[in-house]
Amino acid sequence: MRVSHLGICVSDLERSRAFYRDALGLTHLSLRMDEIDASVARLPAHGARMLRDTHIDNASLRAKAVFVTDPDGTLIELVETKPRDTRP
Questions:
Q1: Is residue 3's pLDDT more than 80?
Q2: I need a labelling partner for 81 at 20 to 30 A (CA). Which of 7, 31, 56, 62 fits?
């Protein structure tokens, strides 16, 4: 899994939530993974929920994506992309 990490320490959670969510539109986290299906299979045992209607599998782009929620209901996007075969 490759993660674009963002850590924000705040002194007032509600004020910061209003700023990042309402002012900047930051509504979810997106993670790029190598094996999305294996990750999704493990998540329910850890309190996550997969939003099945959000599952995308685009074979022509070699990409998959799905939204899940963490145990607190935070929306997380999981994305898998495979390199294109460039062999002749």
A1: no
A2: 7
